[in-house]
Specification:
Elements: E1 2-6, H1 15-21, E2 44-48, H2 56-70, E3 77-81, H3 86-95, E4 100-104, H4 105-113, E5 126-142, E6 157-159, H5 167-177, E7 186-188, H6 192-201, E8 206-212, H7 216-225, E9 228-230, H8 235-243, E10 248-252, E11 264-276, H9 282-294, H10 323-331
Parallel strand pairs: 2-3, 2-4, 6-7, 6-8
Antiparallel strand pairs: 1-3, 4-11, 5-8, 5-9, 5-11, 10-11
Helix pairs in contact: 2-9, 5-8, 6-7, 9-10
């Protein structure tokens, strides 16, 4: 699925997944039409999002329209594209198939360092536009399953996210902290929408999803089932996950959803916006970064309340700033 916003009449002067997409990393930037395999900047942008059941997809749809409506750039067109999320998005930026992407900050740091799903395949043309909001690992089940703890997932069917997303990494780390390794459960590599359907149908016992808080998909699931339950991560296992990853400790506040009346301990990462440094020039990067923060109030999603310019560089890590973002942040006094 994709949604395209355009401005016409203007002119301006997972490891297997990553391996398949990153056949060529450097020297494979896109051309003026946004296609892969040729060099040059473009104003015809593809924005990689995620599956339709998550936050990335609707967020990308809304931002694509905001960018076109507010960026002072001639001939700008932005298409929000449904993808497998973080890993796939960053790999496609490397290949010139995407020019913009929403991704988890930990996955982006793995990408530029050639770690994790990007082992031996470092991405060299991705630039950080800015942090958006924290995302929490939400371990979802239904009351009727009788599951009370992550440890109860032994022998169960668990959705761990699509192959091209960053959810799988955190799902496997959480399960491993409870001694649940490959073979201890049946993994489903599903997008969030499909995972929700399988929970309802009884074809999945639980789903581990990295989502913004609150997530409308969980509210919809509760409306249709009336029995959604979030499973907390216990203190010992929480310390293990945080100590062995880039994830941070986080609590989903009581009352975030009408089905939780006490805080739910879990881990979080940051969702951030990234741009190709070989296809998005400094001028366009500047305008996109400016719109990212100055037009956040135009969003309809609840996550807009968490998009804060003062926290824009959180989670940047080793990912270089896009030149346009650097210019904007310097103007705003965020950089020395």
């Amino acid at each position: 699925m994709r949604t395209t916003a355009t401005r016409a009449g203007r002119h301006r002067g997972t490891t297997l997944v990553a391996a398949a997409l990153l056949t060529v990393v450097s020297g494979c930037s896109g051309g003026p039409d946004g296609s892969a395999g040729s060099e040059g900047f473009t104003t015809n942008l593809q924005l990689g999002t995620g599956s339709t059941g998550g936050v990335y997809y609707p967020l990308g749809q809304e931002y694509s329209g905001i960018f076109v409506d507010t960026a002072d750039v001639d001939g700008l067109a932005v298409t929000a594209v449904e993808t497998g999320a973080s890993v796939e998005n960053l790999a496609k930026i490397a290949r010139g198939e995407l020019q913009l992407a929403i991704a988890q900050h930990n996955t982006a740091n793995d990408a530029v360092n050639g770690r994790g799903d990007f082992e031996g395949m470092a991405v060299e043309n991705v630039g950080f536009l800015g942090k958006l909001y924290p995302e929490a690992a939400q371990i979802i089940t239904l009351e009727s399953t009788g599951i009370e703890s992550v440890g109860d997932l032994r022998g169960k069917t668990v959705a761990i996210g699509p192959p091209g997303g960053g959810t799988r990494e955190v799902a496997e780390q959480i399960l491993s902290a409870y001694g649940l390794e490959e073979g201890s459960y049946t993994p489903l590599e599903e997008g969030f929408g499909d995972a929700k359907t399988k929970l309802q149908d009884g074809n999945a016992d639980a789903s581990i999803e990295i989502l913004g808080v609150p997530a409308s998909s969980l509210q919809e699931l509760q409306a249709s089932t009336g029995e959604v339950k979030l499973i907390p991560i216990d203190t010992e296992q929480l310390d293990t996950v945080v100590g062995n990853s880039q994830f941070e400790q986080y609590e989903i506040p009581a009352g975030t959803y009408d089905f939780i009346d006490e805080p739910v301990p879990t881990v979080s990462v940051f969702a951030a916006m990234y741009a190709s440094t070989t296809q998005v020039d400094e001028e366009l990067g500047y305008e996109l970064t400016k719109a990212l923060y100055e037009q956040a109030d135009s969003l309809t999603l609840a996550q807009k309340e968490l998009i804060d310019l003062e926290e824009a560089t959180l989670g940047q890590g080793d990912v270089p700033l896009h030149p346009g973002a650097q210019k904007y942040f310097q103007e705003q006094g965020l950089l020395d």
